[in-house]
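Bumping my old thread because nobody answered last time. Still need a sequence for this structure:
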């Protein structure tokens, strides 16, 4: 399959048809539930975060607090 040729053909479709194509592609990916395996480091980090949350369930920030924190760093 030549991706460049395929993309050129896709661009010739109407916007509605391209949106429909994207939806079909997205649904096919979701149906396969293609998820890459986590690395050992990623698994360790998730485990660390879960352990921390379980030890400190009230040590959380609201979305508003997070946004304010980010804005304060700029």
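Sorry it took so long. Here it is:
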């Amino acid at each position: 399959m030549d991706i460049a040729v395929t993309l050129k053909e896709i661009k010739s479709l109407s916007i509605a048809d391209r949106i429909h194509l994207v939806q079909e592609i997205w649904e096919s990916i979701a149906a396969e539930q293609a998820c890459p395996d986590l690395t050992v480091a990623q698994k360790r980090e998730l485990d660390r975060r879960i352990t921390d949350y379980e030890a400190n369930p009230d040590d959380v920030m609201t979305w508003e607090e997070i946004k304010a924190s980010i804005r304060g760093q700029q």
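The helical segments are 3-11, 15-32, 40-55, 63-73. Let me know if any region looks off to you.
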